[in-house]
Amino acid sequence: AQSVTQPDIHITVSEGASLELRCNYSYGATPYLFWYVQSPGQGLQLLLKYFSGDTLVQGIKGFEAEFKRSQSSFNLRKPSVHWSDAAEYFCAASGGYQKVTFGIGTKLQVIP
Amino acid sequence: DVKVTQSSRYLVKRTGEKVFLECVQDMDHENMFWYRQDPGLGLRLIYFSYDVKMKEKGDIPEGYSVSREKKERFSLILESASTNQTSMYLCASTPALHTYEQYFGPGTRLTVT
């Protein structure tokens, strides 16, 4: 069955520290991959997406993600976290016909 | 900018009531989706629609129905609300058949008492 796994439910980082959020997928073929962010009380906003080509993808708000086929991973990174990055982050994948599978989300807490 | 709006941000209903959640998008998107979001479960697809009057079941359609009479509007219906349908409901849309980037509304937090 198709699945997206985010192994970390909650992560706390200090402001200014680097961040890496993990995501693994299980699909028959390489799916389209996404990272979304959800601020409290809001809908989801797309941070970045990978369809093909360069495996390092740049997104909005200074985020990037790296696709690693050998590890079935698509980890999200940011070199220096800001307090406004505190939110919930969802990894998602799609293999076809619009259906998107979401991970359970990782809540990011940023401490001063 | 793409805009997806949902009729209510917060809704409180009683068990057994019929509940309508409305979603409107203003960018002429063909595809629309309803998800529910629960802590520890992420987003789960309830129904989606790829055209007017067309609908497809998602992963958890039981207890829900949908209606799409106009391209811009997609309604989620709880025929007889139950407490286990207390959740955050998110609507999303996409512009074309093979575009998987979804645009989300702000969500409706539904409480069934």
Report what the structure shows.
The complex is a heterodimer of chains A (112) and B (113). Chain A has 112 residues and is mainly beta. Chain A contains no helices and 12 strands. In chain A, strands 2, 5, 6, 10, 11 and 12 form a 6-stranded mixed β-sheet that branches. Chain A has a 4-stranded antiparallel β-sheet with strand order 3-9-8-7, with no helix packed on it. In chain A, strands 1-4 form a two-stranded antiparallel sheet. In chain A, strand 5 and strand 6 (44-50) form a beta hairpin. By secondary structure, chain B is mostly beta strands. Chain B has no helices and 11 strands. Chain B has strands spanning 4-6, 10-13, 19-25, 31-38, 42-49, 56-57, 65-70, 73-78, 87-94, 103-104, 108-112. In chain B, the strands form 2 sheets. In chain B, strands 2, 4, 5, 6, 9, 10 and 11 form a 7-stranded mixed β-sheet that branches. In chain B, strand 7 and strand 8 form a beta hairpin. Chain B is globular and about 40 Å long. The mean pLDDT of chain B is 92. Classes of the chains: A mainly beta (112), B mainly beta (113). Chains A and B meet through strand 5, strand 6 and strand 11 of A and strand 4, strand 5, strand 9 and strand 10 of B.
Shape of chain A: globular
* Largest sheet descriptor of chain B: 7 strands, mixed
Summarize the largest interface: chains and residue counts: A-B, 21 and 26 residues
Strand content of chain A: over 45%
Largest sheet of chain A: 6 strands, mixed
Q: How widely separated are the two ends of chain A?
A: 41 Å
> SSE order of chain B, as H and E?
EEEEEEEEEEE
What's the helix count of chain B? 0
Helix content of chain A: under 10%
Poorly predicted runs of chain A are none
| SS summary, helix count of chain A | 0
Our Rg estimate of chain B from Cα atoms comes to 13 Å
Number of strands of chain A: 12
Helix content class of chain B: under 10%
The structural class of chain A is mainly beta
Write down the overall mean pLDDT of chain A: 92
Q: Could you report the average pLDDT of chain B, rounded to the nearest whole number?
A: 92
Q: How many DSSP-defined strands of chain B?
A: 11
Q: Could you give the distance between the termini of chain B?
A: 37 Å
